[in-house]
From TrEMBL:
CDD domains: SGNH_plant_lipase_like (cd01837). Belongs to the 'GDSL' lipolytic enzyme family. One of its GO terms (molecular function) is hydrolase activity, acting on ester bonds. This is Uncharacterized protein. SUPFAM superfamilies: SGNH hydrolase. Pfam families: Lipase_GDSL. It comes from Lolium multiflorum.
Length: 414
């Protein structure tokens, strides 16, 4: 429901300020989530495209693992305090943060559900299976070697779990309904950070085999193969989230100066720019008709928080709330006290952002695409435009963002 005050705020702004806001939104960090939500671009242009979203599925590493590693013999685990201290109920679920992680946020912003559960180990109901799960595993990467020391579920292992999921769902609801859920799902992949930080720059083996550009090329090829396999398995809309500015996480910063480590950041940028080109190519060579692949930028969106922390209400950029060395993450901080003022911090432990930082980044990823998503349907009923949003210097207020989502979801369910 939209309350009175929000409506009057909406009506008070002008069309001119709206256009300024749209242009600002179109700036540098354009992230093309639109194709994911509007698989039939021509239909959308004609105002008839309805983007049905059945479920959200996520593959990747500890950025998005909600607890798949809980029963594994691995140091990449987070099912104990201080993890989860700001999660509903203060529970340490295995999410590598103080609260929710990006998979949860994508699912809730898309109106699917509040939390996106791990596929492994939790007591999943049919309704959970029908609306999406996470196959990600902390410590994983595109390079199969990355998952070995971390005893994480490799990227190939995650695809096998997806196959298992499909079989299970088919047994429960029949093939036709299973195919519908799969083809109307939105898929996100978030991997690559461990391949660089925990493999290439830490273990000598790959450095003996590859120089940095050729290792990045190998990762890109692995990522493309992963995406193609996922597509062959029925995933049509795949949001490909690049590698974050790993040189800026507390454990990777330069010793002494605490500057972001440039080689790691350059490697991440190189991967991101190469995968962007490959994604464009994949869009032309999709194996399932009607598929859309989109590159979603986490690099510059997170870097913006790191470079302008004050703008987002952060005070501490270089240190993690639970510590800043390589040993201030996962099992190494079991029952370790967290800082008292987590909202001041971008990083929770020495590798992973706080829930607040994740939430801002996910909102940015979505906001950068919202105008494209709703422009067509709302233009014709211009009194419904949430004009005031453009005056918000920091991004867009949550209340107005909620309103945009409601409008999008009305479209979705229409
Ligand atoms: C990706 O697949 C192609 C074609 O099957 C293969 O030649 C290539 O080696 C694969 N890349 C990696 C990194 O495994």
């Amino acid at each position: 429901m939209i309350n009175e005050s929000r409506e009057s705020v909406v009506q008070s702004a002008t069309m001119a300020s709206l256009r300024r806001g749209l242009l600002a939104g179109l700036a540098l960090l354009f992230v093309n989530l639109l194709p994911l939500l509007l698989p039939c671009a021509q239909g959308a242009a004609a105002g008839t495209g309805k983007s049905k979203i059945s479920a959200v599925f996520v593959f990747g590493d500890s950025i998005v693992d909600p607890g798949n590693n809980n029963n594994r013999l691995t140091e990449a685990r987070a099912d104990f305090p201080p993890y989860g201290e700001d999660f509903p109920g203060g529970v340490a679920t295995g999410r590598f943060s103080n609260g929710k992680v990006p998979g949860d946020m994508f699912a809730s912003r898309l109106g699917i559900k509040e939390l996106l559960p791990p596929y492994i180990g939790s007591d999943l109901q049919l309704s959970d299976l029908l609306t999406g799960v996470v196959f990600a595993s902390g410590g994983s990467g595109y390079d199969p070697l990355t998952s070995i020391p971390a005893t994480a579920i490799s990227s190939t292992g995650q695809l096998e779990l997806f196959l298992d999921y499909k079989e299970k769902l088919k047994a429960l609801v029949g093939e036709e309904e299973m195919e519908r859920v799969i083809s109307e799902g939105i898929y996100f992949t978030v991997m690559g950070a461990n391949d660089l930080a925990n493999n290439y720059f830490t273990i000598p083996l790959r450095r003996h085999q590859y120089d940095l550009p050729s290792y990045v090329e190998f990762l890109v090829s692995s990522a493309v193969n992963f995406t193609m396999k996922l597509n062959e398995m029925g995933a049509k809309r795949i949001g490909f989230i690049g590698i974050p500015p790993i040189g800026c996480c507390p454990s990777q910063r330069e010793i002494g100066s605490r500057e972001c480590e440039p080689m790691r950041n350059q490697a991440a940028q190189l991967f991101n720019s190469e995968i962007t080109k490959e994604i464009n190519r994949l869009n032309a060579e999709q194996s399932v008709p009607g598929s859309k692949f989109a590159y979603i930028d986490i690099y510059y969106n997170l870097l913006d928080l790191i470079q302008q922390p004050g703008l987002y209400g952060f005070k501490e950029v270089t240190e993690g709330c639970c510590g800043s060395t390589v040993l201030n993450a996962a099992i190494f901080i079991k029952n370790h006290p967290a800082c008292p003022n987590v909202y001041d911090y971008i990083f929770w432990d020495s590798f992973h952002p706080t829930e607040k930082a994740y939430s801002i980044v996910v909102d940015k990823l979505i906001q950068q695409n919202m105008q494209y998503l709703i422009l067509e349907p709302l233009d014709r009923h211009s009194s419904a435009w949430p004009h005031a949003i453009v005056e918000d210097k920091k991004g867009w207020s949550n209340a107005l963002l909620d309103r945009w989502w409601q409008l999008l979801l009305q479209e979705k369910h229409a």
